[in-house]
Amino acid sequence: MKLPRIGRILTLAVAALTAFGALRAADAASLPAPVQGVLRHYLSIQADLAADSFTPVPAEAAALAKSVRAAGASLISQDVAAQADSLAKASDLASARAAFEPLSASLIGTLGAHHEKGAYVQVYCPMKRASWLQASRTVDNPYLGKEMPSCGIVRN
């Protein structure tokens, strides 16, 4: 059966997006499992902050710190554990966002050290002059939350 031109274009677009998703998943899988675990906690925190949801952040940050310590210094700087501990001690959304900034900078460096390309996106907020990681190219700003959710520039 011959598809109309628009049908062929849509079929190719869906195939390309599916392949892109598979490549991103493969990129994430190339990271050591302990690093993937740390990033799962981090991405959960990023999503919570972007949604202006403070309640789950301290527990996720404590779990992230525990994962970093379990991974060992050869995979992730133990400074990341200390930064996650600071985030776990945050008392409100504002202090959590402030503690999230150095944690983000360190994990961006961790991904660079592991030569990870493609599975995670680095985004920069010009209003806060701070970067973060996320899994999607759709900006979801953890520093400004619902006030300005799409404020950010995708860096990679």
UniProtKB/TrEMBL annotation:
<feature type="domain" description="DUF3347">
    <location>
        <begin position="38"/>
        <end position="111"/>
    </location>
</feature>
<dbReference type="Pfam" id="PF11827">
    <property type="entry name" value="DUF3347"/>
</dbReference>
<dbReference type="InterPro" id="IPR021782">
    <property type="entry name" value="DUF3347"/>
</dbReference>
<protein>
    <recommendedName>
        <fullName>DUF3347 domain-containing protein</fullName>
    </recommendedName>
</protein>
